Amino acid sequence: MRGIRILTLNLWGVHGDWSARRRVLVDGLRNIAPDLITFQEAVKTVEYDQVTDLLEQGYHVHHQGGRSADGVGTAIASRWPIRSVNEEQLDVTERFDPTARWIGSVAAGVVDCPAPVGSLMLVHHKPAWQLGYERERELQAVATSQFVERTRGDERHVVLAGDFDATPDSGSMRFWTGRQSLNGASICYADAWEATRPGEAGHTFSPRNPLVVSGEMPLERGRRIDYILVRCGEHGPTLDVSRCSLAFDFPVAGVWASDHFGVVADLSAPE
Predict the structure, then answer these.
(1) How far is CA 193 from CA 26, 137, 154, 203, 264, in A?
(2) Which of 14, 230, 231, 269 has its CA 20 to 30 A from that of 4?
(3) Which of 246, 270, 103, 240 is nearest to 159 (CA)?
(4) What torsion do the CA atoms of 97, 163, 142, 63 make, to the nearest 10 degrees?
């Protein structure tokens, strides 16, 4: 095995026709067969664990701290044991809702992937979602990048994934991809979509999905806001992106899996 497959997906909780959506998600996840996953808007309560319900046996799951009153939050899953996890809240301004602690958070899990990839840090970044909160997203991007540098230790590979709620031309995403500095800091991660599909819109929140236009944003025109990023060294990313595509971006028997499309990427160790 030379590479790994990673998926990021916003599950949209159990909204809509959950029974029908669940069937599409279970079948789709089995077909995609990701090795590493970051889930947003995943429900975890005493009675129900949405992530383990959707995945086949054999995955290791970490539910991140900070959830809403109805159990909605974030999670990471891995085919291999998650050796350690560090988390941090990203309360960068006073504008955050204290009842939704999963929004504005980061978690980093270390996973020992098979050779030649080896040890890898999977970072799940979930910043503010509101359209007018780009300042918060910028501050959170800087905070997460510094969190990664403090906690990654000897890990050569860092993969950052999640629902960033920011378009590629935003300040926060320009920071992540090395196009600008913020608050005196700079970093560079390779955007898996851009690396393999330059020029393609790749919208992950789109009005062609009826769950979007029937929801809270009926005037949505379409944005790419979900990402898989690979940390760069001085000369480029430490892992090669051989493939990147959307996931759950079409209906199955008229059923859409979520209001977001997922992003899936195949990463491999360079020759």
Answers:
(1) 24, 20, 27, 11, 9
(2) 14
(3) 240
(4) 70
In total, how many domains does the chain have? Answer: 1
Global pTM reads: 0.96
Residues 6+ apart with CB under 8 A from 235: none
- 32 strand-pairing partners: none
* pLDDT tier at 12, thresholds 50, 70, 90: very high
CA distance 113 to 4: 8
Q: How far apart are CA 64 and CA 82, in angstroms?
A: 13
153 pLDDT tier (thresholds 50, 70, 90): confident
Residue 121: which CATH number?
3.60.10.10
Q: State the residue range of the domain holding 71.
A: 3-268
